[in-house]
Design brief:
Number of strands: 11
Distance between the termini: 21 Å
Radius of gyration: 32 Å
Structural class: alpha+beta
Strand content: 15-25%
Shape: elongated
Order of helices and strands: HHEEHHHHEEHHEEHEEEHEE
Number of helices: 10
Largest sheet: 5 strands, antiparallel
Oligomer: single chain
Length: 284
């Protein structure tokens, strides 16, 4: 297995919990026919050592020594799958000897035509799932909540007459419970049902009638109104392509993993491990 450039003198000199524990297990007497004490697994002649697994744990888990055996077993199997894919990429000539595991997978998928959707497939998905790309009617609002009916009525009269929103809020500040300048566009499902009909009956610039609730008196003004619309294919295509490619890449990775396992026959030397290995590749 290729050495990582990140392994420096400090790493080599540091005490590694799994490696140290494995050495104690072997010292207790496990037989002379075992592989070397630092050997965790082998893939068709390519060795994986405790140091490799420790490094992988540092990248994928906060504290490998504190994880239960089932989790450690899963992580070791995951490392072996990734290493098998790395060897496969090198053997297929799509990556150099020193390639990283993630880069190796990306290289395999990049060369695989089954992963990348065609323009016709993107368009077919768009037409078959058109509801995903429809946006409902939306409005952008200003709103003010008043503590009493009299203030709300007076404010509505001033607002309807053209008083700017900020000036209105300032003039009635002692009787305003809350106010909000125009924010995000909102659809019917984004609003409390009690307000929906009132708000969606308004034209841009129009101020609503006063809406009384248990916690005050509301006024609304629609700033902008957008009709329901469907995103055009040209706009939705990049999103569809990413979605299709992601799903295909995940499925193709599983196919590649199965093929790489058969090609490199991973074996885990469970008796060399300081935890109870329960994964896929136990070997004497």
């Amino acid at each position: 297995m290729a050495s990582s450039p990140a392994r420096g003198a400090a790493r080599r000199g540091a005490a590694r919990p799994l490696a140290a524990a494995a050495a104690l297990v072997l010292a207790a007497g496990c037989g002379d026919d075992l592989p070397g004490p630092d050997l965790v697994a082998r893939l068709d002649g390519h060795d994986v050592h405790h140091e490799d697994f420790e490094e992988y744990l540092e990248q994928h888990a906060a504290s490998g020594s504190a994880l239960p055996s089932a989790s450690l077993s899963g992580l070791l199997d995951q490392l072996l799958d990734e290493e098998a894919l790395r060897l496969w990429a090198i053997e297929q000539g799509v990556a150099e000897e020193d390639v990283g595991r993630r880069q190796a997978l990306e290289a395999l998928l990049a060369r695989d035509p089954t992963v990348h959707p065609t323009a016709a497939e993107v368009e077919g998905y768009y037409r078959a799932n058109s509801s995903q790309f429809e946006s409902p009617e939306q409005v952008q609002l200003r709103q003010i909540l008043f503590d009493d009916r009299e203030a709300a009525a007076a404010a509505r009269q001033s607002w309807t007459a053209g008083m700017p929103f900020t000036e209105l809020v300032q003039r009635f500040r002692d009787r305003v419970g809350a106010s909000q300048e125009a924010g995000a566009l909102l659809g019917r499902d984004d609003l409390p049902p009690v307000f929906v009909d009132t708000i969606f009956d308004l034209e841009p610039g129009e101020v609503s009638e006063m809406v009384a609730t248990d916690y005050g008196f509301h006024l609304f003004q629609v700033v902008e109104r957008r009709p329901a619309a469907r995103r055009p294919l040209a706009e939705a295509a990049p999103e569809i392509e990413r979605q299709l490619r992601s799903g295909r890449a995940a499925r193709r990775r599983e196919e590649l993993v199965r093929a790489a396992r058969q090609r490199y026959n991973p074996r885990v030397f469970a008796r060399n491990l300081p935890f109870d290995y329960t994964g896929l590749h136990a070997s004497p």
